[in-house]
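Hello,

Our lab assistant flagged a job as stuck in the queue for most of the afternoon. It eventually completed. Since we weren't sure the result was trustworthy after the delay, we are filing this so someone can double-check. Below is the sequence as submitted and the structure that was eventually returned. Let us know if re-running is recommended.
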Amino acid sequence: MNYAIIQLAGKQFKVSPDQELVIDRQSEKIGDKITVEDVLLTSDGKTVAVGSPLVKNAKVTLTVKDHVRGKKIRVATYKSKSKYRRVKGHRQEQTVVTVNKITA
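-- returned structure --
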């Protein structure tokens, strides 16, 4: 099993080739390639390379597939004893990417 753990936009993701991944909105256009060099761990099924903090010469190539909005969540606020209530909705902007290649 070939996989890697990457750090992208302040979050960590376990990725493997041909996997689709939903991440926070990126500024790249649909079809653009993203190269992630913040690789924390790589594995090819036999050997595991753990970085301290990053694995040297390791890269993960991603392709932007789509820009979407996430599921709507409700945010409710209130103040006790004063009949103040507000409900707002929020939909997070997200980007769908496909993992092309893991280079270790």
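-- support follow-up --
The delay was a queue issue, not a problem with the job. The result is valid. The two ends are 14 Å apart (CA to CA). Strands lie at 3-8, 11-15, 20-24, 33-36, 39-43, 48-50, 59-69, 73-79, 84-90, 93-103.
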